[in-house]
Design brief:
With about 325 residues, the protein is an alpha+beta fold. The protein is about 50% helix and about 10% strand. A hairpin with a 3-residue loop joins β2 and β3.
Amino acid sequence: MGRVPRIEFEGALYHVMSRGNRQEDIFLTDDDYPLFMKVLEEACARTGWRIHAFVLMRNHYHFLLETPEPNLVDGMRWLQGTYTKRFNMRHKLWGHLFQGRYKALVIDPQQDYFKTVGNYIHLNPARAHSIDPKHQLLQNFEQSSYPLYLSPETRPAWLDVDRLLGAHGLEDSPAGLSRFEELTQARSTLISCSPNPSEFDEEWSKIRRGWAFGDNDFRQSLKERIGDRLTGHNRSSYSGEAIQTHDVHEAERLLEISLKKLNLSRSALPPLKKSDPAKKVIAWYIRSKVSIRNQWISEQLHMGNPSNLSRFYKEVAESKAGTLFSLRNNITKKQD
């Protein structure tokens, strides 16, 4: 099955989540939590990562992670591999601990998106009914960065609280932390008592699915990075919305290149015949460079029934002389 490509760059923000293999526990005893925290601390020292929020549940974990250097993949490989080795050694087990690939949703740095992910992580225990709202406060759930936010003297050096507090319009001060506690606990109580906690915030569904969380401009800016990631890789190994958005973006670029080389404009396409040689060659050129649906090509070039395109591609590819051959050479004679 295809997988979503990892997007890495300096200063990237991610919502990282990973579950236990077959959704089994990754923390068997209370002593496993400090073991994981020790490995996370070492990973941050090795990579320079900044953790803005985290929560450790019995069979999965969540991070709001910033990578000052483009090293998500190497860092996550070391983190999960090292914890698995130490976990297995402690419990005299062997084999995989985590289920498949971890999820790494790229986050728009704008405050609203950042705040939504931070809240999603800190409120996870309430959403999962891991605390009793009648007898426990959210800060009683110790396997989270939330109680560390409220206790500056216990925070590890790799936990950065300023950015999330700032997204709430607050400072790392007694007054700011008191207000942060008030806001977060109020939402925790409402969620714990909600008949459908997972849908308490409509934005949360966007965090659980997809490949990026942000506005259209942010998602657009990631498309070039996806293309860079695919360079030198087997494209068939990847799938998902990230690849589809990259393909459309790349097809648009190739269409503009083709039109320019053939001295055409988009407005000149509708009057031409559906089987015009220039259209055939442009369609073949785009399809040979990027995986894009025939439906898309047919609509952009005004070529009618998409089922005809396969025949057109073959005509262009096998042409040895004549108009198709000349146009094909013209469109491919220079590097893009």
